[in-house]
């Protein structure tokens, strides 16, 4: 492929490389997976409550330096009855966000189980991010930031606390994953 540069309406050159990769969200029901994705897509989370079997598929593109990163996002259902379907969604994924609710210790324990499963069964090069969601409810916190950060460090995970409600760190989380993928040179020229 040849590299080409065309101008955007604001006069800035378009990205010369395109990164396209599959990202899967995993975590228990009601931790805010769908809300994080919807916030990232620029939608107000409480106006849309998806009802789906297994997973929903969404896409979003962002520009990072000279690269357009296209996320192919699989938002999995958190109910236990759908757990057996998860490998179908994370198979071939270059990135995963494992989400837990900072006000619920059980969801953090379950997030650790998801991380172990990804480390054991997903691609060895997968980027795994741990997201402690509902940071706007810090006064009801049951999972300490330091505990989650230590776990993330011990397991080589990206880690951020997020709030889909206030948008805190939502874009930063996806951009950090995009930059990590961009650094792995899984991109191609236009």
Automatic annotation (TrEMBL):
<dbReference type="GO" id="GO:0070062">
    <property type="term" value="C:extracellular exosome"/>
</dbReference>
<dbReference type="GO" id="GO:0003925">
    <property type="term" value="F:G protein activity"/>
</dbReference>
<keyword id="KW-0342">GTP-binding</keyword>
<dbReference type="GO" id="GO:0016197">
    <property type="term" value="P:endosomal transport"/>
</dbReference>
<dbReference type="GO" id="GO:0048227">
    <property type="term" value="P:plasma membrane to endosome transport"/>
</dbReference>
<dbReference type="GO" id="GO:0005768">
    <property type="term" value="C:endosome"/>
</dbReference>
<dbReference type="GO" id="GO:0005525">
    <property type="term" value="F:GTP binding"/>
</dbReference>
<dbReference type="Pfam" id="PF00071">
    <property type="entry name" value="Ras"/>
</dbReference>
<keyword id="KW-0547">Nucleotide-binding</keyword>
<dbReference type="InterPro" id="IPR001806">
    <property type="entry name" value="Small_GTPase"/>
</dbReference>
<protein>
    <submittedName>
        <fullName>RAB5B, member RAS onco family</fullName>
    </submittedName>
</protein>
<dbReference type="GO" id="GO:0006897">
    <property type="term" value="P:endocytosis"/>
</dbReference>
<dbReference type="GO" id="GO:0030139">
    <property type="term" value="C:endocytic vesicle"/>
</dbReference>
<comment type="similarity">
    <text>Belongs to the small GTPase superfamily. Rab family.</text>
</comment>
<dbReference type="InterPro" id="IPR005225">
    <property type="entry name" value="Small_GTP-bd"/>
</dbReference>
<dbReference type="GO" id="GO:0030100">
    <property type="term" value="P:regulation of endocytosis"/>
</dbReference>
<dbReference type="GO" id="GO:0007032">
    <property type="term" value="P:endosome organization"/>
</dbReference>
<dbReference type="GO" id="GO:0019882">
    <property type="term" value="P:antigen processing and presentation"/>
</dbReference>
<dbReference type="InterPro" id="IPR027417">
    <property type="entry name" value="P-loop_NTPase"/>
</dbReference>
<dbReference type="GO" id="GO:0030742">
    <property type="term" value="F:GTP-dependent protein binding"/>
</dbReference>
<dbReference type="GO" id="GO:0019003">
    <property type="term" value="F:GDP binding"/>
</dbReference>
């Amino acid at each position: 492929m040849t590299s080409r540069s065309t101008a955007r309406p604001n006069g800035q050159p378009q990205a010369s490389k395109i990164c396209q990769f599959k990202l899967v969200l995993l975590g228990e029901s009601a931790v805010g997976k769908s809300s994080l994705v919807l916030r990232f897509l620029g939608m107000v989370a409480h106006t849309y409550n998806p009802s789906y079997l297994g997973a929903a598929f969404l896409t979003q593109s962002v520009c990072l330096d000279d690269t357009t990163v296209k996320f192919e996002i699989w938002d999995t259902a958190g109910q236990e009855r759908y757990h057996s379907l998860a490998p179908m969604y994370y198979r071939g994924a270059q990135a995963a966000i494992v989400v837990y609710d900072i006000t619920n210790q059980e969801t953090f324990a379950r997030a650790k189980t998801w991380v172990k499963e990804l480390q054991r069964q997903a691609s060895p090069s997968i980027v795994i991010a741990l997201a402690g969601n509902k940071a706007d409810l810090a006064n009801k916190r049951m999972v300490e930031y330091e505990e989650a950060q230590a776990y993330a460090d011990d397991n080589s995970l990206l880690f951020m606390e997020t709030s889909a409600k206030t948008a805190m760190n939502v874009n930063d989380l996806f951009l950090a994953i995009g930059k990590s993928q961009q650094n792995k040179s899984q991109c191609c020229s236009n």
